[in-house]
Every structure is written in C-alpha cells, then in structure tokens.
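Quick entry between incubations.
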Amino acid sequence: MQRHSPRRLAVVREGRVLIYIPDPRGAVTSGRLEPAWLDVFYNPAMEVNRDLSVVTASLLLEEMRGKRDLRVLDAHGGTGIRGIRYVVEAGAEEAIINDIDPYAAALAHANARLNGVTSRVRITVADANALMYRLKREEPTPIALIDIDPYGSPAPFLHAALDLAGHGSIVAVTATDLAVLEGSKPKKAFRRYMVEVYKTPSSREVAVRALLAFIAKTAAIFDKGVEPLMSVYHGHFIRVFVKVQRGASRAEKSLSQLKHAYHCINLGVVVFDEAECNGNKIALGPLWSGPLGDANIALKALSNLSEDLGSYKSLKKLLSHISVEYTFPPSTIYYSIAGISSSLKVSMPSRRLIIEELKSRGYRASETHFSPEGFRADAPPQEVVEIIKELSPSARNR
Ligand SMILES: C[S@@+](CC[C@H](N)C(=O)[O-])C[C@H]1O[C@@H](n2cnc3c(N)ncnc32)[C@H](O)[C@@H]1O
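Done. Structure below.
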C-alpha cells in the first residue's frame, strides 16, 4: 500500500463491515468530504446506494442459491466496500473486486483481511472492460451479479458487462451523469447513449428510461433481453438492477419496449402516447417504456430492511414509494406539479389535494420517489391538467 509514502488510514463502519478509507482530513472542504480528493474513492453519500444494493442483492442471490455459483463482480471496487458487503451481508459466496488503481486494490486487500473474508474475495487490478472480456473467455460459469459503479457514465462499461452476463445474471448499474441523461446536454446524451433527450418537467424518469433503453439495446447486440427488477433515482445517482436472459426472442421482446415519449409543451407533461398531447410536442427517445421494476422485490426489500442500516430512513421511504409506483401501468410517467402549473401559468396546488381529487374520481394516484413535487396517476393528462387548474390557489382566488 505504498504508492508515494505509507498512508494514514481511517476506519468507517457501514452495514455490518468495517472499512479502511484514506485519512479524510486532507479532503474536507467547507466541512464536507470531497471523495475525489481521497487517494482511494469513498463517498459516504453513496451509503444509500450501497445499502440498497446489499438489500436487493441478498434477495436476488437467495433466489439463485443452489442453482448456480453465487459469485459477484465488483468491477469498480474502490476500497472494496461493495464486494465485501456482498460477501458479509448479501450471501455472496465469492466476490471478485477490481480496480484500475493498484493502491485501491491494496486497500481492498486490507479491508478483506479486516473483515475476515480474504478466502472469499479475489482482488484484481485491471481496466474493468479488459477484466470482463477476460472473465468471459476464461471463466465460463456465469457471474451471478455484475456491479458497475464507475465515475459518471456507465456507458463505456455496459458492452463488456452485458457480454459477460449469462442467463439469469443480474447487472447492477450506477449512473451519476444525471445532467446528460436528464437532457441538459442533449448532444452528449446522443453521443453517449444514442438517445434524444431534452430537459423536461419529468426529466428524472426520462433519465432512468434513457439508461434502461441503452442497456436493452446493448444487451440485444448479444441476443440477450433484459428485465428491470429495480430502478431508482436518488440524490445524485440512478441505480438500476436488470436481469439478463439469453435468446434472440428475449432480445426482440426487450427492444419492443423502446418507444418515443413526447413532451407536450402546452400541458407540461411527458407521455408515451403522442395523441394525448393535443398541441405542440417534442419527441424524446427512444426510451424504455416497460416496467421500471418488480413491486414484489421492492416489497420484500422493504420487509427485510434492517434498522441498523445507516440509510434506513431514506431507504424505507424510497422502497415504500417504488413498491406502489411499480404497480402502475408500466408506461405511465410521473406528472410534475411544477411543470404543469408553469405551463398553465398558475400557482402550484398541494400534492395531497391533487392525489385526493384523482382518487375521488376513481383513478389510482400516488406520490413518486422521483420528486417531492411529483405524483403518478393512471388518469389521462388532459384531466390531470384540469384538476391542477381547478385546485390551483391562484385560479381559485380569481
Ligand atoms: C465511483 S468509484 C467506485 C466506488 C465504490 N464502488 C464504492 O461503492 O465505494 C470508481 C472507481 O473506479 C475506478 N476506475 C476508474 N476507471 C476504471 C476502469 N477503467 N476500470 C476499473 N476501475 C476503474 C476508480 O479508481 C475508482 O476507484
């Protein structure tokens, strides 16, 4: 662990593991830790991403137990915290923990020792793509879960990950290039993801659906289909878990879920059915129009959630929301109260009132994890817009 000089380390506890991280004292700015300044990347703000991953992986690995090797690949390991948590907390039999940086790998070694799991952890130093192509050639038994957690965009790693994934493998992907996926940088989004996206009132869900579309297209190259088991947008990241299935017909089925969505300018909504716009519209996509996840998995994750997790409260809220959201028709996109109110030029009514009104009219409506000012409903956009117009304080005072 000597790159320049012997490093000072600190120890953090996360989940059921203890992890050495580089001494954070030199990496604090304005009272906050700047993860990129550490010799090895460790971001405490991503604990919620790791907790969610551990809880979800433990469910998915349990379903595979006895049917295949429970081997996981942590392709961008950093301190090794994810791979080690998969072994200690999620029931993985073995974790391959990789990083391109030898110092990160040395720290991951120390962390495997600290947690008594050296015999179940294999540490490699390689470019993640090179490693995945090599594993594909040299180790024919499919890896149960492949975790892609790079800086920024996962796009450069998805070709190798989806090539490596076998029938039934899970690919878990983090994206933090949200400005690109949400459409603030349309040219970059097209270059990276081959998708046309622009900033819209529902851009957070558009971002998730753009990433899923890219995953489905990339899997299809290898005659594989994907089924999203969980997709979330939280803080500054998107995290998706997809199950990969082999077969040209499965690939075709996934591709059949790719559709254009439309930003209806006059209404301030984004919908998959162009006819619902009734006015000026801008096409976005192609996006994944199928389910974002499996409500049963979200419910099970919720009931297995341990209060000892550092992000227990955030995850409880997140999983409660998505377990309801995933039961809506798959191609509904959340409505933004701010977006609709702004296109109507009225002030925003409360979300509670809107949801109550929709339910009283016989529709399903719920909060969405995507935004504190968003909601999901199976009502047509025209009617949602009418309701917002009626309930707006500014309209009622007229
Ligand atoms: C966002 S950090 C990973 C954080 C870690 N998974 C966690 O949960 O704490 C990204 C890591 O990828 C490593 N990395 C960057 N480029 C890479 C590449 N081409 N192949 C493998 N690792 C890479 C970096 O050294 C860094 O440790």
